[in-house]
Design brief:
The protein is mainly beta. The protein has one helix and 13 strands.
Amino acid sequence: MVAAAAPAPCPNPWFPMEDGLTLTYRAGRSSELVLATKDVAPAPDGTVKATLAVSLKGRSGQTDLTCDAQGVRTGLGGLEGTLLSASGMDVQVVNAEGAAVPAPSVMVMGGTWKNSLSVKLQPPAKKGGLRPTIATTFDKEATVVGEEEVTVAAGTFKALKIKNITTARASRPGAEGRSMESFMWFAPDVGILKLTTDGETNLELLKVDRPNAKVKPASIQGGAKKKAVKPAKG
C-alpha cells in the first residue's frame, strides 16, 4: 500500500490567507472586531507571507503573517497578540514562539501544539500622565478535542473544537502565573468561528467577505443542498 501524502502546509485551510478576505466578529458584548488579509505573497519555497489588518473599537493595527511547514505564525504571536495590536497600547514583542495555527497535519482529533508570547505594553500617551511599562508572558497549550457542527451569526459550519489553557504571568523570574481555560472553533477555509471562556462567548463570527467568492460547501450554507435536476424526456 502507498502511504497517503501529508497535506501541503500552505495554504492552510484553518487560517486562510486570501487577498481581501475580511472576517467580522462580535467581540465581547457589543464591540466589532475586523480581521482583513492583504498583500498575500507566495514564495518559491512554498511559504506564503501576508499582512493581517486588525480593527477593534475604532482602533487599528496590523501584523505580519507567515505560512510555512510549522503552520501560520503572526508577528505578534497568536490571537492574543493580534488583539493587543488594536488595543490602543504600544506593543513591543520581546519573544514569540510557536504557530498561531499549526500545520493541517496537526489539526486532527488529539492534535496538540504550544505557543508563547512575551510582550511589553504601554498605555496610550496622555498629557502629563505616566506611561508604566507592563511586561507580560502568555503561554498557551492547545488540543483538538472534538469535531462538531457550530452555528454562529455567519452561518452553520462543520468545525474543529480546540481547548486552550493559557497562562499569563509577569515577565520576571519566579512570577506566578494565572491559568485560564477557553475553547475555540475553527472551520476550514474560514478560520476562527467562536471563542468562549467560562461558557461565555467572547468572540463570534458575524460575516465573511471574500472578493473572489468560492463555491461554499453545504455546511457553510446551513446544510442547504441543491436539488437534483432530472434529465429531460426525449
